[in-house]
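Appendix B. One record, verbatim.
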Amino acid sequence: MADSKLATALKAGAAVVGVFVALVVVLPLVPLLLELVVGVFRAFFDAIVPGGKTYE
């Protein structure tokens, strides 16, 4: 049985609200996640090459 127009509109509205909430929650976390990834990457290579760029 097909959904009524009201049910379809409610589903579309719920999807839009869900996407908006996801963006509001996820976008502020992006810089934190990037900083975490870069920190892990740098820590990994600091363990391989002690002293990093300043090593003489």
